[in-house]
Every structure is written in structure tokens, then in C-alpha cells.
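Intended use. Records like the one below are meant for learning the mapping from a protein sequence to its folded structure. Do not use them to infer anything beyond what is encoded.
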Amino acid sequence: MTVFVAGMSTLAIEFTTSRMLQTVYGTSNIVWANVIGLVLLFLTVGYFVGGRLADRRPYPQTFYALVAWAGFSGVFFLLLTSVLLKTAASALAAVNVGAIASSLIGVVFALAVPITLLGCISPFAIRLAVQDVSEAGRISGRIYAISTWGSLLGTYLPVLIVIPLAGSRLTALLFGGILLLVGLGGLWQTQARSRFAALLLPLILLPAALAWTSGGIKAYEGQIFETESAYNYIQVVRQGECNYLLLNEGQAYHSFYCDGGVVPRVSVWSIMLAAPFFNEPPVEIDRLAVIGLAAGTIPKQYTRVFGSLPVDGIELDGDIVQAGIDYFALDEPNIDLIVGDGRYQLNQLNHRYDVITIDAYKVPYIPWHLTTQEFFEEVRDHLTETGVVAMNVGRAPQDRRLIDAMTATLQTVYPTVHAIDVPGSLNTILVATMQPTTLDNLTQNLIGLDESVDPLLRVALETAVTNHVPNHPSDVIFTDERAPVETIIDSLVLRYLLSEGVGGLPGLEQ
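Structure written out for the chain above:
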């Protein structure tokens, strides 16, 4: 039972730590690699230390003391990590480099103690269980099997159930507390003199647990809502008369809604309105699909401009959709809210669309399976004869490698691809059309707009015409077999930080 709980707690701590980190540092491959690498490093240290300690002090009371301290440290240091990261969140919002670096170092030390102690448990358990050398293989195999079985539960239970329902801090308290109780139970049975002394551990932990599990995860000015879903840390921040959706590290807005439906400025989502107007006039739009719905900014602006056209909005995270309903007035009857993976759910739909938009960023990454030649062929099969697909793609100053690769990939499926640099941002909208099209079409459609059209549409077309840029497709084609999207983005981000520094990152006020 002890090695089962220890295996479960190890993976639970790993996933809980990663969830805590993503509220500040995001969900990039670098963050995941650091968490997994550190866990493996500290487990390795624990295996060596546990094996040597077991040979020197092969006593059950020593074993259960290790278990109890592992449980205690799992709760204490993970809750301490949440406090450090709350400070780091404010520092990142203000781009305070020193506080960010010191908090990350603190997280490393916080992870080191519980994981190293957990690594000690399996070799120690084998040493205690082996009474006959002839049975060493069978017993060690059984212990590692039971530990891995616990790890399996520790993989699914926190991610799918406990964190979405209780949050990361209570998850740390739950799994660390279970391990602590197992250790205390073992000490109670094996060492009478330590029975009451061992009770000091939960008594010491209690005030820290009460203090560090209260309050919000972050404390941004204007924050009106936060929650942890199965996929994201979700925030809603109010500035002026507008609500903004932030996810994870909070360094980009994913949706906004202003009182009365006011659109104060042209944004990434507004320029999506221009996509169908690359076709020859007259332009008719009867149906829209949105992959990466977020809180519904794109379909709401399309509904405002074109009326109650049918919209299929696909969003992976159901809690984001609920936030859209609660805080972004996502209640238009023409918008069908679909929760699920964008590629899978699109292929379940039988409609054909005049426009399909793709804005599925998990900053700074685009899900790789939404960038491939095969995916765009599937999108093509859901478009009308004059349909268009519009996709939001990131870039850095003087670094358009991702845009160039995406352009090259789209050109293998569609006859024409246009690029629009969104002013005041590091975003480019790529528009691919089913028919050969030109910038002149967009200009003619702008000139021919009726005076009665919504002013937002006119401004969107004017912005698209002014910021249309030539394409320079690369020789990189993304496919389901090979799509080095993350590699390009990692390099792009690192180059940007090295040239611009952390001060170049957007803050909340931007």
C-alpha cells in the first residue's frame, strides 16, 4: 500500500507542479521539459540515497519516517510554491526580471525535497521486503509494478478530476496528506516512542495549509473571475468597460467584450471579418465555423456585421465556453457552442462554410495538428466553392519563419494565400481562398461597401488593405508525419528574448 500511494503521489506532485507553473510561465514545451527533467533528476538522486540509507538503517520505522516526511514536504513545499508563483505572476505582469528568476529558482528547490524523498521509498521498500535473495527479483518486480500502478492513478486522477474540481493547491494538500497519513500509520505501528511526536507533523502543517490555500491563485488588478479547468488556468479581468479573457500565464488576451457590445478598436478578431472579401464581388456569407472559439469574440463580431448567420464555434475547454456565457454575453441563439478538439469536431460536422477561422493559440504555440497539409485538406472539404480559411499566426520582429512555413503549407492546398500584419501586435492573419484571388478584389469590395454597413466592417477592410504584405513561402511543409512547429516557435521566442529582452514582452496594460 505504501509504494502504491508513493507512486500515485509522485505523478500527482509532478502534474500539480506543472499546473502551478503554467499560471505564470505558460504551457510551452520548455516548461514541460523542465518539470519532467527535474522530476527524473530528483528521483535519480532519491534512488541512490534511498538505497544507501536502506542498507545502513534497514528498519521499518526509518522507512515510514521517510514516507511521512515525503508527504509533509509534498504539501508544504507545493503550497509554498503557490505563494512564490503568486509573487511571480505579479512580477511577470510588471516584467520584473529579478522576481521572476528568484521565484523560478524557489520552485526548483520546492520540487527537489518531496521528489527526492519519494525516490527513496521504492529501493528502501525492496530492501525491507527481501528476506531471501532467491526471491529478490520477484519481490522487486512486484514492488515496482505496484508503484507504477499507483503512478497510473496519479496521472489520471489529478488531471481529469481533482484539479478541475478542487484546484491545484487542494490537490497538493490531498495527495501529500494521504502520503503523510500512510507514513504516520506506519510509525504508529512500528515505533511506539514516536507515536505522539509524529503527530507534530500535521500540527505544524495545519497553519501553513490554512494560510496558503486561502485567497485566489493570482491577484491581478481588475480580476473578477478565476478557475482551473482540465486544460487551463482561466482568468477574467475587467479594465474600464471591457472584460478580457486571460489564460495560463496571462500574457495575451484571448477574447474581449465591452458593455453594450462596443468594439473600441480593430483587433486580430476584427480583421477576420475581411477574409471573405478577397473573393470577387458580390460577397455572400451564409455560414461560419470558428476553431478556437474562446469566449466568442469572432462569432459575436460576425453576428454584429452580418446578422444572425449560423455559426459553429468549436472550443476545446468547456470552462472557457462557460466563462464566455457568464462574462462575455456569449448568448446569441445563432451560435452553436461545440466543446471538443477543433480538428476532430470539424470532421464530425456535415456543413459547408463560407468562412472557417482558426485561432487556437496556447501562447505562443499553435497546436501542431492544426497546422498540417492534411488538416488543411480536411478544412478545404468543409468549404464552399468560394470559401476562405483565415488563420492567426504569430511572428517576431524580423523573424517570419513560422508565417513563411504556414504559407508554404497552405499553398499546397489552396491556390492563393494572403497575409495581413495586424497593426500594433506580433500577429499575422493568413487568408487562403478556394478560388484564385487578388488584393484588388479586397480593394474593390471596400470601395463598393454600402453606406449602411456596420462601420466595424469598413474599418476591418481598410486595415486589411493597408497592412497586406507580400508572401515569402519557405521550403518547410508541415505534414501529419513531420510538423516542427514547436521547434520553430521555440527558436523564434528565444531569439526574440535575446534581442528584445524580457522587457519586450507584452504586459497586461497592452
